[in-house]
Amino acid sequence: MTPPHPRDLLGIRELLDDEERQIADTVRAFVANEVGDAAGRWFEEATFPERLVRPLGELGLLGMHLTGYGCAGTSAVAYGLACLELEAADSGLRSFVSVQGSLAMFPIWKYGSPEQKQRWLPPMARGEAVGCFGLTEPDHGSDPGGMRTTARRDGPDWVLNGTKAWITNGTIADVAVVWARTDDGVRGFLVPAGTPGFTARTIGHKLSLRMSATAELVLEDVRLPDTAVLPGVTGLRGPLSCLTEARYGILWGALGAARACYESALAYARDRVQFGRPIGGFQLTQRKLVGMALELNKGLLLALHLGRRKDEGSLPPELVSFGKLSNVRAAIDIARTARTILGANGISLEYPVIRHAANLESVLTYEGTEEMHTLVLGQLLTGQAAFR
Question: Into which family does the record put it (predicted)?
Answer without folding.
Answer: Belongs to the acyl-CoA dehydrogenase family.
